[in-house]
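Collaborator request, handled under Task 6.
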Amino acid sequence: MLETSKTSSDATSLQDAPDLLLAVKDLEAWYGESHVLHGIDLEVRRGQVVTLIGRNGAGKSTALKSMMGVLEKRAGSVQFGGVETITAPARDIAKLGMGFCPEDRAIFASLTVRENLFLPPVVRPGGMDIDTIYQLFPNLRERMNSWGGQLSGGEQQMLAIARILRTGATLLLLDEPTEGLAPVIIQQIAHTIELLKERGMTILMVEQNLHFVSRIADRHYVLEDGNIVDVLSGTDVEANHTRLQNYLGL
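C-alpha cells returned to the collaborator:
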C-alpha cells in the first residue's frame, strides 16, 4: 500500500525540501531470522549520484533491495517522491519511478538484446527513446539481435541499465555496476553515469571501486555491520583514502 508522506518533526519532508527524492529513516531489514540492517538513515536529492560503500556482507545490497521492496521483511521509513513505500510491493514502487539493477544484471540469456530491452513495461512518461539509448550505448545497437547469453559482462551491464532508462524511472539503484569488468569498460560505465547525471538522472549505487566513485559521486555513505558509520562528500574521498580502505578491508 502506498501512502502520501506527512510532515513530522522527526523526519525530513519533501514539502520542506522539494529536491529531496529519496528519504530513508531507521530502515531495518531481515533475511529470515537474520537481522541485517539496524536502522540506517540516508538521503538522495534529485540529480545526485550517491554511493553506499563498505565491506562484503555489510548490508549494502540488502539496503537497495529493501528500498525497492524486493525484501518483504523490513521496517522504518522509505519515502520516494513524497510517498511512503515501506509496506509497498516492488511492482508498486517501480510504478513510482524507482528502477533496480541487481548485481547479477538479470539478463535473460535466451532472449535477444532487443527482447531484453523491451521486456520491462514503461511505467512512467519521460523514458528514454531507443535512439537516445543507442547514443548512450552504441554497443547495443550493434548487438540488438544477439542473445543475452552471448554478451560480455560490460555489455550485459549496459543492457541492464538501458532497459531501466526506457521505462521512465527517475531513480536508478545500481548494485556493483563495475563488478568483474575490465578497466576500459569501467571507464565507459563511468562516462555513461556522468552523462546520465548531466541529464538530471538520480542514482544510488553500491560500489567498492573507490577510484570509480570518487570521480562521479556527490556523497558516500559507509555501511558497516548494517549501520551507517560515516558520511563523506564526493570531494573527501582522496583526502580520506586510507580511512576508506580500512572500512573496506583493503
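The cover message to the collaborator said: "The two ends are 42 Å apart (CA to CA). The mean pLDDT is 89. Please let us know whether this matches your experimental observations."
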